[in-house]
Amino acid sequence: MIRAFELAFTQLTDPKLRGVLWQSLLLSLVLQIALGALAWWGMVSFATFKWQWVNDLIRWLGGSTVVVLALLLFPASFGIVVSIFMEKIADIVEGRYYPELGPARGIPIWTGIWTGVVFLLGLIALNLAMLPLYIVALFVAGLGIVLFYGVNGWLTGRMYFEQVALRRKSPADVKAWRRANAGILWLTGIVIVFLGTLPVLNLLIPVVGTAAMVHVAQTLKAPPAPGRPFNPPAGGR
Q1: Which of 51, 187, 212, 221 can bridge 8 by disulfide, Cβ–Cβ 3.0-4.6 Å?
Q2: Residue 233 reports pLDDT greater than 60
Q3: Element of type H or E holding 220
Q4: Backbone angles phi, psi at 105, to 5 degrees
């Protein structure tokens, strides 16, 4: 897995990825600002108490709260960015490192976008639902971080893998491979989410995460049940 991220970061200098990278950067930045604005609007709208000092306190704390909420919700924006650029990114990575695979059949763009939207909404809902647990976990050293990265890492790893794998495999095969490699996919998702919480670097994650998952997909073990390998040779059975 470490090698997968190393290759992903190295390929950022690839001219073929530069256009996709800049488009991804722009969209990631827009989504980050939108999430921050949404969190700020929610905070200001909540400050409607009859005691002015309470409203002032809420607004004063609003800045730090917005930062925290934007940080918690930022992984949710990954799904939208990945769904739009995943096909191009995966094709570029496979073309350089795995040309023997040949062209992927791909997935319809609207299917990918819908998957990204569902992922975004699900991740937002889950994080908001777990917000009380995050707050309680603040009183236990390290527990909040474990919860945040664990939950978001599991969902993110699953989404990235499915987006990449569905280009070449049926939903049933993708499900079987995901179950057989749950641990490595979860760990990959945690790394993606961790990098996504680092300022500036998080804007690269839709590209880096997708590229890394393409590499990880080539190292997965076959599911226990008899079946074809993840990427069978052209014309193979």
Answers
A1: 212
A2: no
A3: none
A4: -70, -20
